[in-house]
Amino acid sequence: MFAPLVYLAALVLLVEEWCWDTGMRIAGALARWPALALLEARVRTLPPYGALCAFVLPGLLLFPVKLLALFAIAHGHALSGIATIVLAKVGGAAIVARLYVLTLPTLLAVGWFARCHGRFMGLKARCLGYVRASHAWHLAGRALRDLRAGVRRALRRLLRRLRPHPSPAAGRHASRAVRVLRRFVVQWRARRR
Predict the structure, then answer these.
(1) What number of CA atoms fall less than 13 Å from residue 123's CA on the CB side?
(2) Rounded-to-10 torsion of CA 102, 107, 109, 112
(3) How far apart, in whole angstroms, are the C-alpha atoms of residue 29 and residue 74?
(4) Which of 34, 73, 81, 162 is deepest in the core (most CB within 10 A)?
(5) At what angle do helices 176-192 and 135-162 cross, to 10 degrees?
(6) If we measure between CA atoms, which residue out of 86, 85, 97 comes closest to residue 30?
(7) What 3 state SS string does 123-179 have?
């Protein structure tokens, strides 16, 4: 296989796995709410073709949102368009992952769906095995771990900078953010007089 395509496939599979896992965690946490628990109980009791509609519906509803995001990117709003696509991807993955878990037993009662599901899962397992055995997968996994570690370090540094540090020059509040807020309050009070 052409090496750049293996790298691209490894990257896409890593992102998809992350979205799916994150979506499952988010949806599982949200499922504790009583209203959503009631809705999930109703989804579990749907007939086979009703469950199929419920499973396909989020993907169909998110398609126009993604098109609008691409439209925004094309008209110079790249940041908002990319943010919309990412939110739609993670949110859609959360909803679809939860619906997959809820509707799979019912959907497997539909013969053609069960056959397609079996073939797809076999093909997916073979492709994942091939990509996971590649050097590209290991490099992408290492890069993702390094990225996560870098984000954690940056967040720790940011939190350290925002915490107040007592010093004789700054009085009780040495945090830069607190000093700026205190200056703002002093200026605001001076204007009110």
Answers:
(1) 6
(2) -160
(3) 36
(4) 81
(5) 50
(6) 97
(7) HHHHHHHHHHCCHHHHHHHHHHHHHHHHHHHHHHHHHHHHCCCCECCCECCCCHHHH
Tokens of 178: 């607190």
d(CA 41, CA 98): 12
Query: CB of 85 within 8 A of CB of 63?
Result: no
Per-residue pLDDT of the chain (193 residues; tens, 9 = 90+): 456 776 777 677 777 777 777 777 777 787 788 888 888 888 888 898 888 888 888 888 888 888 999 888 898 888 888 889 888 877 787 788 888 888 888 988 888 989 999 998 888 888 778 777 877 777 877 887 888 888 889 888 888 887 766 555 555 555 777 778 888 888 888 887 6
Please state, in angstroms and as integers, the Cα–Cα distance from residue 23 to each residue in 16, 17, 93, following that order.
10, 10, 5
Question: Residue 186, Cβ neighbours under 10 Å: how many?
Answer: 10
CA–CA gap between residue 7 and residue 9 (Å, rounded): 5
